[in-house]
Design goal:
This protein is 72% helix and 7% strand. It is built from five helices and three strands. With 147 residues, the chain is mainly alpha-helical. The radius of gyration is 17 Å and the shape is globular. It has one domain (4-144).
């Protein structure tokens, strides 16, 4: 098999790239058609560039671990939010669009998400990532011949 890591990278970026096209379409409609006043254009470029690349790199790591030492692909993918969330919070804090205080996480100095919501949302995110990796990325890995 030629270029297994390139194949793994390409199989990994498909799902988030397709999803982000839907998100960008919804954002464009909300911002420019319905005049929603949330200034997401300041930070939407970073997730669109970073998340697909991290999915691809995470899938390359999965392939590099080999079949004897790795978790199932779903469990491997379910670990990715534990990398993405701290990375996103750090990047948002450095860029000045996210502030973490005693009330929760404040984005754009307008929206505050209490810490309690993260307790309920995190398991849902992990489950979604598990399913995406098990059924979509796993299928694409099989299709690309990298399993």
């Amino acid at each position: 098999m030629k270029h297994p890591y390139l194949r793994a990278y390409m199989a990994g970026i498909v799902a988030p790239t397709a999803f982000l096209l839907v998100v960008l379409t919804a954002f464009t409609l909300a911002r420019f058609v319905f005049d929603v006043p949330v200034p997401l254009e300041r930070v939407i470029v970073f997730p669109m560039a970073l998340i697909p690349n991290l999915f691809g790199a995470w899938n390359m790591l999965y392939v590099a671990l080999g079949s004897g030492r790795r978790l199932s692909i779903g469990a491997h993918g379910a670990l990715l939010p534990f990398v993405l969330i701290p990375l996103g919070l750090t990047l948002g804090t450095v860029l000045g669009v996210i502030r973490i205080d005693q009330d929760g996480v404040r984005a754009f100095s307008a929206v505050t998400v209490p810490f309690v919501r993260f307790v309920f949302v995190l398991p849902i995110v992990v489950i979604v990532y598990y399913l995406v990796w098990k059924y979509i990325v796993g299928f694409l890995n099989d299709l690309a011949g990298v399993e």
